[in-house]
Amino acid sequence: MPVFINADDVKNNLSWSELCEAFHEGHQAPQADIDDILFKQGDNAVLNRAAWIKGKGIGVKTATVFPNNANRTPALLNVQAVFTLFDDENGQPLAFIDGNLVTKWKTAGDSVFAAKLLARPDSKVLTIIGAGAVASSMIDAYRAVFPQLEKVQIWNRTFAKAQTLATEKNAIAIESLPEALSNADIASSSTMSTASFIKGEWIKAGTHVDLIGAYRPDMREADDALIAKSHIFVDSRSTAIHDIGELAMPIENGVIKEEDVIADFYQLCNNQQGRKSETEITLFKNGGGAHLDLMTALYIMHKAEK
User: Fold this and answer.
1) Which of 94, 102, 190, 294 is a plausible cystine mate for 130, CB 3.0–4.6 Å?
2) What distances in angstroms separate CA 49 from CA 59, 72, 82, 167, 251, one per listed residue?
3) Which of 210, 2, 162 is CA-nearest to residue 93?
4) Helices (H) and strands (E) in the chain — how many of each?
């Protein structure tokens, strides 16, 4: 019988570094088959994201997005999800996993794994843009994988929210975005912006830029100047380039070409070089494909079994 795994079952057993290892192993397996199905009624939506990795497993994450749930009495989560994991050989369901747990670890793990591959190992200053749940997870993930970090800075459009998160995470809230970025070794952004606001002129040589927020064709966080002067990487060419505005808009406008995307995880985990110098700016677009949900779910089930 399949088991149900919730956050409390594994909250003391999961490790960001171990998840990075699971991602590396997963990307050395055959490339995943993936597909999405999205239904919308007004502002509400249901999304099915499916992935099949031969020899590893089959997974489907079903998520509902109801933006007005926070205004209900009692309030409900805007995003609710469940992940179903199936055996790759016989199709049997193995586990039902809290989908929000999978998403949390997949999203932050995706970005910190990229930083492990692309950021300078001696990075000391991390700037977090945004102050929501993803930003909180990003701080935990980066501190775990980059234990040499000396300073974590937080910027948010609403400064009070940055101050609240900074207090919770023993970090520093900064009101000026140019200041927060100009001294960063790693900059990680998770906002809902539809207009580019991270300017290339603020990013110093050698910085690793991690872009998480944009997930629709009309969304982006980095401006053309930053895109143009960066060495660009993605988690998956099939999910992060054409369907998300972050790279699709600059490609459409002739700022860059698709060939300017140097590599994705499948290439980086199979001997393609990432960062080549201490001075280059590496830019990573987190597209968060369904195969990463599946790799995360397999890792969670493995830890739950223990």
Assistant:
1) 190
2) 8, 27, 11, 36, 26
3) 2
4) 11, 14
Number of folded domains that form the chain: 2
> Does 72 lie in the same domain as 126?
no
What span, in angstroms and rounded, lies between the C-alpha atoms of 38 and 55?
Answer: 27
Residues 279 and 301 in one domain: no
Domain match, 169 and 271 both: yes
Phi, psi of 39 (to 5 degrees): -120, 140
- Angle, helices 290-305 vs 16-26, to 10°: value is 120
3-state secondary structure of 271: coil
Model-level pTM greater than 0.90? yes
Same domain membership, residue 125 and residue 64: no
Domain interval for residue 38 = 3-103+291-305
pLDDT at 274 over 90: yes
Render pLDDT for 161-181 as a digit per residue (tens, 0 to 9). Answer: 999 999 999 999 999 999 999
Sign of the torsion angle spanned by Cα atoms 127, 131, 137, 139: positive
